[in-house]
Amino acid sequence: MKKIKTGKLWAVLCSLMACVLVFSLTACGGGEGGETDSLTLSATTAEVEVGKTTTISVTSAETEEIIWSVDKTDVAAVTGSGAGKKLCTVTGVKEGTATITAKAGDKTATCALTVRAVGQGGNPSDEGITIKLNGEAVGTDLIYIHLNEELNFTAETTESGAINWESSNTGVAAVDGGKVTAIAAGEAVITAKLSDTVKATVRIKVIAPTAVANGGENEYESGWRYWAGDGNAVISSCVNYAETNETQIKYTWTSGQFYSVQLFYKDKTAGTDHDISLTIVSPVAANITVNGAKQELVEGENKISVKGFTGATLSVQFGVDGENTVFGTDLLFAFKDIVVKSNADAELVAPSFGYDADTKIITITDEANDSANVEKYVLGVFANAEADTPAYTIDVVSGEEVNLSTIPTGQYVLRLRAVNSSTKIINSGWSTQTESLEWSNEKTPLAYGENANIAAGSSTWYYWNQTWDPVCSFTECYMKGNSIYIVGISNNVGNPWSFQLFYKGEAGKKMTMTVNSVQGGTITIGSTEYELEAGVDKEVEIADITAVAIIFGANVTGNTSSNIQGDITFSNIVIE
Q: Which of 7, 182, 274, 497 is the most exposed place for a label (fewest CB within 10 A)?
């Protein structure tokens, strides 16, 4: 029997032990990527260029939140996202190698990362498969998809074999043969693969819409609003996708005026000289009005631009005066890629201020603005600290008492802004600084409201006046007891309906009142006109108060001679 030397025996034993160790690690590893104790990654190795991103995901069904880390933060940066942070976005910082680690409780898994110089490869599409969307190869940028919508990816490869599609987060997005269905808001990685080494990925994010409020052009500070009037159009939905700068409106409309459906958008440049460009995706060939100008749309995408505009940033009417109203069923218009370029010379900053509750004196400190650019300061009276739009506004002067006569009893939050009416100056936003206001008023100022937006049966009086042109103003409009007082109506030279009162009460009830106008004129309620002699009481009865609209003039286009001027009182209001 041949003897074996001790050194050779030790080498053989080491070799056997290594084999056992390799077998043991392989048995524990399994899956597509590196893991320890059942934590599995989508890849054990990855490459990325400096300044670009790639993704790694946990593919095992973990319930704990994943913690991602990198051992060399000067080489790469990592960010976890999606449900349970199962998706990791890796950004190349500088050339080198690093180790990416995923941890869930006591389980970890790693991926060896190589960061290469720009132009030297290292992105998923280089791994034998190219994923395309609408015929174009996808890159490393995040691709957005709307909730409940679909994307159809295709994959091309020079190698043979069937391509399989996978989603890293099936609760967010499901994939079947390249067709991705958005299920819930969040992120996921979609993979097209022939094998563990021949594959490509694309990152997607499912975004949920935010509902756009119904409101008139002058009722809000910024963002989107839609308006539907005349009872002719039914708005199925109006939503905004902030991440993609897109708003969609869907309606059914078979009759009525071209302005019965309108869409508005504002930002801080509203009122200043600015340019605006956007893309409108139209379901039909149509004529619409954008910021007062006729636009001819083809079916599909339309690039629109308006130069030197000084009104609301965007105002859209679906049709053109007297022609081509865009009627149809379930028409979906999309407005996207909005870019606003200001031509202003200066932009104001919100000043700081103090308010003394005992004396009602406001003190304004403004060191940031050139005083020559500030025309006035406006105090915003907000319903609460979370409100975006003030319930009331008051022009104020530093060192003087604030006139709160138009503010109803209540508790409020005060903010301040600097304002100039010049089209070359951008007004400031509301101050982040706030002051509290607790106020008791024997008068109840009427709220501003548009007839179409007032809830049925609200049993509250509202006033409306035309504000986009200075054709009608007033000093006060309030209720005291069972009487309404409107003081100082002036310059009421617009259409007869430039000033109105609205009330929507309980069905089956009637209303009586006494009306007195200092300067006389005509009021119209429904189809009935009431001639008012100056200073003489007029008894009025309204048989149905489910939708009361009082017009301050004769309801005839162009007839301004009968419009109400001065003071008018509606007293002894009784509902029975």
A: 7
Residue type, position 70, single letter: V
- Dist. CA 193–CA 128, nearest whole Å: 9
CB–CB of 235/252 below 8 Å?
Answer: no
User: Which pairing describes strands 179-182 and 129-133: parallel, antiparallel, or unpaired?
Assistant: unpaired
Q: Rounded to whole angstroms, how far apart are CA atoms 497 and 465?
A: 8
- Kind of pairing, strands 461-465 and 376-382? unpaired
Spatial neighbors of 224 by CB under 8 A, at least 6 apart, are 212, 213, 238, 240, 247, 263, 264, 265
Q: What Å distances lie between residue 371 and 261, 352, 367, 433, CA to CA?
A: 42, 14, 9, 20
Locus of tokens 């930002």: 267
Tokens of 330: 């379930």
Task: State pLDDT tens for residues 105-156.
Answer: 888 999 999 888 765 544 444 457 889 998 888 877 789 999 999 999 999 8
What the block records as the tokens of 42 is 């989508």
- 3 state DSSP class of 497: helix
Whether residue 254 contacts residue 327, with contact meaning beta carbons closer than 8 Å, is answered with yes
Q: What is the pLDDT of residues 257-294, one digit of tens each?
A: 888 889 999 888 888 899 999 999 999 999 999 988 89
Instruction: Report the amino acid identity of residue 29.
Output: G
Q: Where are the beta strands (DSSP E) in 421-475?
A: 425-426, 435-439, 444-445, 447-448, 461-465
Beta bridge partners of residue 152, listed in sequence order? 179
Alpha-carbon distance 499 to 521, whole Å?
13
Q: How far apart, in Å, do the first and last CA atoms of the chain sit?
A: 123
SS3 at position 451: helix
Q: Which of helix, strand or coil describes residue 28?
A: helix
CB 246 within 8 A of CB 228: no
| 558: Cα separation from own chain's centroid | 39
Burial class (CB in 10 A: 0-12, 13-18, 19+), 575: middle
pTM metric for this prediction? 0.59
What does the alpha-carbon distance between residue 77 and residue 73 come to, in Å, rounded to a whole number?
6
Looking at 366-510, which runs of residues are DSSP E strands?
376-382, 392-396, 410-419, 425-426, 435-439, 444-445, 447-448, 461-465, 476-480, 483-489, 499-503
